[in-house]
Amino acid sequence: MATLATYNVTSGRNGRLEQALRAMKVANVDVGVLTEAKLTKDIYTRFSSGYHVMATEAPSAQQGGVALFWRDSPTHQVEGQRTWGPNVVSFELVTGGLRYYVVGAYCPPSDPEASTTEDISAAFGAAKPGRQRILIGDVNAVVAEPRDARDDIVADCVAAMGLGDLGPHFRPRPGKGRWTYQQRRADGTKVQSTLDYVFGEDRRLVQSVRMVSPRLMETDHRMVVAHLRMRPSTSHRAYLNARKRFPYAPPVERVEGGAEAAADFGQLLENVVKPGPREARRNEWISPATWALVDRRASLRREGLMTSRELRQMNRQVRQSLNQDRRVRASKRAAECQNHMRNDRVIEAFAALSGWWREAASRPPRPSREDLVAMTAERRELYRKVPSPRGPIPTRVNFQVDDSVPDESEIRMAVNALKTRRAAGPSGMRAENLRGWAKLAEVARQDQSEFTRPEDRTEGDAAAAADMAPWEACVRIVQRAFRDGIVPDRLLWSTVVLLPKGDGGHRGIGLLEPLWKAISTLISRRLMKAISFHDFLHGFVEKRGTGTATLEAKLAHQLAARDQEPLYEVFLDLRKAYDALDRERTLMALKGYGVGDRILRLLSVYWEGARHVCRTGGYYGTPFRSERGVTQGDPVSPVIFNVVVDCVVRHWCQLVFPENTRVAENGLGYDVRGHTVLFYADDALLASRDANWLQTSFTTICDLFERVGLQTNASKTKVMIAVPRRLMGRELDSVHKRRIQGGDSHRERQRRRVECSECGLSLSAGSLAAHMRTRHGIYTTGERQDAEPPHRVMAHTWDVHFPKGGGRVACPYPGCPSSATTPGNMRKHFLVRHHWDLVRIPEEGGAPLPQCEKCGLQLPWTALNGVHPGSASCRKGEERKRQRKAIETLRRSNNVRFTAGDATLETVQEFRYLGRVLTKMDNDLPAATRQLQKARVRWARLARVLRQEDIQPSIASIFYKVIIQAVLLFGSETWDVSPSMLARFEGFHYRAACQMSGRRARRGRGNGGEWVYPPSREVRKAANLQLVSYYLGKRRARIAFDMENRPILRLCKDSQRMPGSRNRPYWWDQDLSAPEEEVWSDEDEGSEPSIAPSDDTPTQFTRDPRPVMQGLELEGFEQPAEGEQPTPSNIPWAHRARAGET
């Protein structure tokens, strides 16, 4: 029997979701739907009180939203979870061969047309045949006796699906009734109605339906509980075992020599030690002493030899031992992370914490059998061979890749290069097994050489042979694969883990056998050693990576802005790049790059014999073959893809740079000022200041990629036109009028009340930009659209008459408030304000005066042929003319469009390239704000774990650097960090250090009782942290070292600011040298805080700040030894906040 429930919790925010789950646990509910959860973001508790949670995104924080919760059970399984809009969720409840299709819904009362019923109908339309359909939730309608049109719509929807209310079929408990909603009116009377239901098709599958008020949580609704009939647990266990078993099938026919390879691999499998049931259940970090206490407590309780007092004492001992084990575990993880951080291995440091702390994240739902069959069919269709058009791409390189049979030392190096702590292959073998066998064989050889007596040597030889047998089998398999092209059949099987993507699709990551990974690593090392990739490629190349690629894109932005020219950029996206690669063309490219016959044959054998099995949610699909593509997760796949891209890029350079043949060999060099080409695997950026060249070259490279099986994804390929932030051109008409005629001041205009276009909030105009940025994530571009009127083909001539007696004459241009006293001033006015038109003064002749070819000023012929050319006014006018031309070019650039085939590419204001945000106006504030928000969310989660684990400050700071700082400063090496941006980062950094060190603000006795924060230097010393500027400087210096010989950086440093451009700092203007680490001294300890605000002194606050820690008591505080001060290093986490006040 499974307990299904629906309950209106009125809100799941502010801890009410956790409270509701505790109430569900007390009520013994297995699976259910919480309606009106009001969860507006994808940040909520994913697991609490033994329940998994999946919630929809509510339309607002005041109404709507549902949350599905379930717990693991040996009798049933929840599969195929899916959301249908903000108020509907569906899932399958499986028990052996019996399956229920359940839809949970909430119909808001504010929707008079009950539009949620459309989502309910769509959800039931997706139900597979043979399922028992059930609808639960709060529909806010009386279905039995509809009261209005809205109730009729809901009742008709339920009737159309063939469902009926299951509640009336069961007798309610005496005195309880069938109502689910109760409202108290103003006169004190109670109104009860039924708004929550359990609808179903067959009431015989439901054992009972009850309306109850759960303990621990009360609302104006009652919970509806249904008990569903289940199949026996043995039937469900057989169902799960069938779906969780890898479907390996031995080959029907074996190739010649395959029996020996299979025997060697079978010998390896015999030496793979799989953990037993008891070892698998026990956590490794718990010490044997703690397990001994736990076993002793269990034994005494079974024998009944413990009193209640002895049981409490034993429980206390177990808790104390567990706390000590947690501290030891944290210390070991911190030491390992610190070692990785010293060697700049951030990814390995984060992986070292995976067993200690794991961020709550959405896991892929367990698919139904039909869904997994559809996913497998989709992958099979993806890997189906598609002929590539036209002929192969020619190669003109001279590389030679080592093709010899590897010796044992080379195989050992490849095995030792495998990453540990990774998922096992289909056979259960891990990289740790291979490395262990290699180490065991090495030790056995050393021990064998130490034996001197014959009898000892005989026994030693037998023991050494047994120890070296697995490793020798590995060596034979690898050498046989290179020499004869024979690979064991088990080595050809792989698991394709399907990870959900944001667009609704899946990304397939291959879990391969670790021995094949060793072979791939060996091939990859040989390719990387022999092949020098093109300068445009940044992926998997020494001293290049995502940082250098994004920085070059940013420098190209800034260099074009400094030259006052637009930069047209196309971000190329290839559809399923790794999965769609043409294998035949790939082998031809590898052969052209000097790869020998042995490696080509080995790759061909593996690709032709590979078997793949899809897995998602822990379930396996059916095996299938692939006819194209390379496996994501294979160590050699990125290098092979790089070779294909390199082949395409070199031939493309020959086509689009025919006059410069060196580009195909050495890159653009200093011609990078006009063009920028960046490739990182399948992420490409083509940029140029010439739009026509970019369109032609983009079309050419798309055609070349089609010849290797790669198609351009026009829907994801974006265009961005980078322009300078602002050029100082012609004065705005509004500003000019205000300067001449007067008007509101800048302060008055900033104080005007306006409404936000997103939320309708009324606020001052000066606060609108910050409100849009912080509340809605919308950033203004800062473009001046009306700075220059559009260009005219034909100039208009305006007549101006100046009276003989003199006086001020108004400008004849409509709407212009200016005037002039002399004809010369009028001509200068037209040159500055209306340069696209001419002015004719009858007193100077019948026709307009000629214009200077350099500056455009109208002057008599005598002046044009005399002193005017080359004068200061002419040079100034010439510069103004150049600025006008630049502004006109920038304006026209916004209308340029690019195409991919018949599709017009979308032009965007910002683009996330390789994880970094690039904006049209070269503004790093959006990227910095997003990283700060992510760091705040992650720190809120980590701080709770640190408090629960009672972590010391020195260890907590290491975890902070690995988990939080990696998010906070992601991509910061390419930012232009402003003082205000740095201050926001330092503020977050300081508050985190306060929490880790136990320092907190306190209200001073003098100066009006201002809140005083402890000195920044003292807090950072206690937490062993440097300033954020130090970590920023280290990242910037590291990438500057990698970029020191890149031509674009040299061009940027040698460039000069042109007149009319903003005097803004550029990336290369920052300090690119390595910063000096702040050294702590004994004098910093115990320094008294001052009220004067500075870096090393606290800051005053006139209002009560948010406390660093709340709800912490001082009971059980362990006093330090005699003569020792209560510093944060010897104060537990749970007591540091209070101790900081003493």
Short description:
The chain is of the alpha+beta class and 1142 residues long. The radius of gyration is 36 Å and the shape is globular.
Structural account:
The protein is globular and about 120 Å long. With 1142 residues, the chain is of the alpha+beta class. The strands form eleven sheets. A seven-stranded mixed sheet has the order 3-4-5-2-1-15-14. A six-stranded mixed sheet has the order 6-7-8-9-13-10. Strands 18, 21, 22, 23, 24 and 33 form a six-stranded mixed sheet that branches.
How are the SSEs ordered, and which strands pair?
Elements: E1 2-8, H1 16-26, E2 31-35, E3 47-48, E4 51-55, E5 66-70, E6 77-83, E7 88-95, E8 98-106, H2 116-125, E9 132-138, H3 149-160, E10 164-165, E11 181-184, E12 190-193, E13 196-200, E14 206-212, E15 223-228, H4 233-244, H5 258-270, H6 277-281, H7 288-303, H8 308-342, H9 346-352, H10 369-382, H11 408-416, H12 431-450, H13 454-484, E16 493-500, E17 506-511, H14 514-530, H15 546-562, E18 567-575, H16 583-592, H17 597-609, E19 611-616, E20 619-620, H18 637-656, H19 663-666, E21 675-680, E22 683-688, H20 691-706, E23 711-712, E24 718-722, H21 733-741, H22 746-751, E25 753-755, E26 762-764, H23 765-775, E27 797-799, E28 809-810, E29 819-820, H24 823-833, E30 838-840, H25 861-864, H26 872-893, E31 899-900, E32 903-904, E33 906-907, E34 910-913, E35 916-919, H27 925-949, H28 953-968, H29 979-997, E36 1002-1003, E37 1011-1012, H30 1016-1023, H31 1028-1043, H32 1047-1054, E38 1100-1101, H33 1133-1139
Helix pairs in contact: 5-13, 7-8, 8-9, 8-28, 11-14, 12-13, 13-17, 15-32, 16-17, 18-20, 27-28, 27-29, 28-29, 29-30
